[in-house]
Specification:
Elements lengths: L2 H10 L5 H8 L3 H15 L4 E4 L2 E4 L1 H23 L11 E7 L2 H12 L7 E7 L1 H9 L5 E6 L1 H13 L2 E9 L2 E5 L10 E2 L8 E4 L21 E4 L2 H10 L4 E3 L12 E7 L4 E8 L6 H17 L5
Parallel strand pairs: 3-4, 3-5, 8-12, 9-10
Antiparallel strand pairs: 1-2, 5-13, 6-13, 7-11, 7-12
Helix pairs in contact: 1-4, 2-3, 5-9
Length: 307
């Protein structure tokens, strides 16, 4: 198997015939056919179905295509990461995948402020639980920051084991309610789930039907009105302009997309766990350690210990 052969298979997926794929690759049709045949013989699988209408991928072929894309993507990242001509190795490099909750962005901003005057390469990608896990498992991100409810913890740990990931718990926190500063509940010292029934609940849309990868911090909460969104900015925009509410892990920090929004402790026996994941066997870079220190600091500042 060669990288070139994998690139051939990926190009084939964009066409319905070997001849058109070969033309796109600027190689002969027999050369492309031979490359596919060699892969099929090496792995003892059938990658393509061939008929008078063209070619299509078999079930085994689709699995092979998925691995081929992953390998080529990782190869590209490897080349970029170690490109000395770009001077990347001489500056801090940090890639984080994080759950949508506000604490990850808050600590990232605090970490960023310590790097003023220095060259650096930083990336934070907020996403759903499954996407955070995937990015770290496939080494697209060095670490992943997650928020888990008691309902999802056992399932997530099983996924961590399957994907060869280590999880480190940072803090147990109590949920908070996010509402606009003029909301009828805004002056409350705390609220209960019963207080929320008649108000619209804004929450992250599920990525699939798996309840154990749900983005809902309290999956059993009931509301007469429900709004699903896919990003935090939309969530905050809705909250600022309506009587809708959202749930979060901690009290809102000042100055991070939070003007006009306040946080209120939620009176509930449920707690949430904040932690981070990384791929086993991969050393943690100093930049990651520095970011995690800020993450712990921001979590400690957000509310008293719940441990």
């Amino acid at each position: 198997m060669t990288l070139q052969q994998l690139k051939y298979v990926i190009e084939l997926s964009k066409h319905n015939s070997i001849s058109s794929a070969a033309q796109s690759l600027s190689i002969s049709q027999p050369s492309l056919s031979m490359a596919v045949k060699e892969l099929e013989e090496e792995f003892h699988i059938t990658i393509l179905n061939r008929n008078h209408r063209g070619v299509s991928f078999t079930a085994q072929g689709l699995d092979f295509l998925r691995f081929a894309r992953s390998i080529i993507e990782q190869t590209s990242r490897l080349q970029t990461y170690f490109d000395r001509s770009a001077g990347r190795q001489d500056k801090p490099h940090l890639t984080i995948a994080a759950h949508y909750d506000i604490f990850a962005a808050d600590s990232f901003t605090s970490y960023l402020q310590t790097l003023s005057g220095d060259a650096y390469s930083l990336s934070i990608c907020e996403g759903r639980t499954g996407e955070v896990i995937r990015q770290v498992a496939e080494q697209q991100s060095q670490i992943g920051v997650l928020l888990m409810s008691p309902r999802t913890t056992a399932y997530n740990h099983a996924v961590f084991t399957k994907r060869n990931l280590d999880f480190t718990s940072l803090k147990t926190v109590s949920p908070c309610l996010y509402v606009r500063s003029t909301h009828p509940l805004a002056q409350s010292a705390s609220v209960s789930l019963k207080d929320l029934v008649s108000y619209p609940h804004v929450k992250m849309k599920r990525e699939n039907t798996n309840n154990y990868l749900s983005e809902e911090l309290l999956p059993d909460i009931r509301s007469e009105k429900e709004i699903q969104v896919t990003d935090r900015n939309t969530m905050f925009t809705i909250i600022k302009n309506t009587d809708a509410y959202a749930l979060g892990s901690c009290r809102l920090p000042q100055g991070i997309c939070c003007d006009g929004i306040c946080s209120i402790p939620l009176h509930t026996a449920n707690t949430l766990t904040v932690g981070w994941i990384h791929l086993k066997g991969i050393s943690i870079a100093p930049e990651c350690r520095h970011y995690l220190e800020w993450l712990e600091h921001c979590l400690q500042a957000s509310q008293p210990d719940q441990d």
